[in-house]
Amino acid sequence: MSQYFSNFPIINYKLPALGERVFATDITKRVVLRDFYRRNFLSYYTYDIQDGERPDNVAYKFYRESTLDWLILLPNEILDPYYQWPLETNRFNDYIRKKYGSVENAMTQIHHYEIITQKRNEITNADGEKILLPEKTLVVDRTTYFENDAANRKLVYAYDYEISLNDKRRNISIIDASYVPAILDAFRNVYR
Fold this sequence. Notes:
Layout: H1 2-5, E1 10-15, E2 20-25, H2 30-39, E3 44-48, H3 55-63, H4 70-73, H5 89-100, H6 103-108, E4 110-118, E5 121-124, E6 130-133, E7 136-140, H7 142-147, E8 153-157, H8 158-168, E9 171-175, H9 180-190
Antiparallel strand pairs: 1-2, 3-9, 4-7, 4-8, 5-6
C-alpha cells in the first residue's frame, strides 16, 4: 500500500502531549475515497482468496499492478491487512496457539452454544428450480442450549469458530479492471 499513501497530503501536526510539531500523512482523506466507491455504482466481482495470497498478489492477478493492492483492501473495508485478511494455514495455527495455548485446546474448548432455528433444507420453487435453504442458528446461553432437543442444538468449538471467521474473510469484492483508470484519475483529483 506504499503507493496509496504517496498521494495523500502532508500536514504539519502538533502532538498535544509533547508540544512538538511533526509532519504526518493526512489519512483522513481515506473517507473521501470510500465515499467515492459507495456513490459510484461500480461493477464488482466476487473472489475467494486462496491460501497464502496477499493483497498485492490479488491486485497483480486482476490489475497487472501489485501496487494497486489498496484497490483490493479499501473497497472491502480492510484497514488491517494482517488480521482482517485471511490468515494462511501456518499463521492461522500460530494465532490459534497464541490465543488458546494449542490447536488441541481450541478444538475442545467450547466457544458458544447455538440452537438451530431452521434446518438446511432443499425446496422447489414454482419454476421447478431446486433452492437450498441454509441452516440458521441462534447463539444462546448454556441453560437454553440444554433445554432444547439434542437434534436442534450444536456446540461451537473455538477452533471451528476461528476457522469460520477466517473463511468469511476469504470472500471479497474486486472492482472490474475497466474502472481502474477512472478511479485513479478521481483519486489524483481528490488530492490535488
